[in-house]
Amino acid sequence: MKGATCGAAREIEYLNKEETPTPIAEAKALARKRAFAARRAAHAEGLDGRAGAHLERLLAGLPAGSVVAGYMPIRTEISPLPVMAALVARGVAVCVPVIRGAGQGLVFSRWHPGAEMVAGPFGAPVPAQEVLLVPEALIVPLVAFDARGHRLGYGGGFYDRSFAALRRAGRPVAAIGFAYGAQQLPELPVEPTDQPLDAVVTEAGIRRFSDLPF
């Protein structure tokens, strides 16, 4: 296996523990604890179908041949799998994230319903046969988001590095957070390396933060 999908087998942070955590690291850790509790409660309410219908509507403008990155949900993450399967059925290429190593961005390997998968060390499966694609839209898991379009992940920085690399390359890429509405926090602590989302989709609907390329 060449890598592992982005995710966590337990709802824990990827952050390396520092002897003296910075104030912003402490603020993010507190925000994660609050958001994890809200996500666990929302996950039990059966909201995935409603949220998925909004996500499918948002992506309806993507033509066949487009490339979309989804993800393999773990624990209490909202599931994009039905939407991913619907995209494949209408000719969109779907891929999932693969971690190469700490401090690196993600690569994305092609996925389809029924694809052979192997276990990744963080609890999410990865495609057994790696076929790398470059996505133009990414459905992104998250721990929390705020009304400004900021995202809080698990702390590894994998998606932030990936967004930054795609945007530096001048590629038209849309970062779409997929979450339960309960995961919204009033205001997230933000660092210069944190990359914003272009939209967030929840069971309540679609919230756009920038113009999408589709």
Q: Distance between termini? A: 34 Å
CATH superfamily: NagB/RpiA/CoA transferase-like
CATH class: Alpha Beta
| Number of helical stretches of at least 4 residues | 4
* Count of strand segments: 12
- Name the strands of the widest sheet in spatial order: 6-3-2-1-7-10-11-12
- What Rg is obtained from the alpha carbons, in whole angstroms? 16 Å
List the helices and strands and how they pair.
Elements (H helix, E strand, L loop, with lengths): L22 H21 L4 H11 L8 E3 L11 H9 L3 E7 L6 E6 L5 E3 L5 E3 L4 E2 L3 E4 L3 E2 L5 E2 L5 H11 L5 E5 L20 E4 L2 E4 L6
Parallel strand pairs: 1-2, 1-7, 7-10, 10-11
Antiparallel strand pairs: 2-3, 3-6, 4-5, 8-9, 11-12
Explain what this protein looks like in three dimensions:
The protein has 214 residues and is an alpha/beta fold. The chain has one domain (23-196): Rossmann fold (3-Layer(aba) Sandwich), CATH 3.40.50. 24% of the residues lie in helices and 21% in strands. The strands form three sheets. It has an eight-stranded mixed sheet. It has a two-stranded antiparallel ribbon with strand order 4-5. Strand 1 (67-69), helix 3 (81-89) and strand 2 (93-99) form a beta-alpha-beta unit. The chain starts with 22 loop residues before the first helix and ends in a 6-residue tail after the last strand. Mean pLDDT is 90; it is low at 1-18.
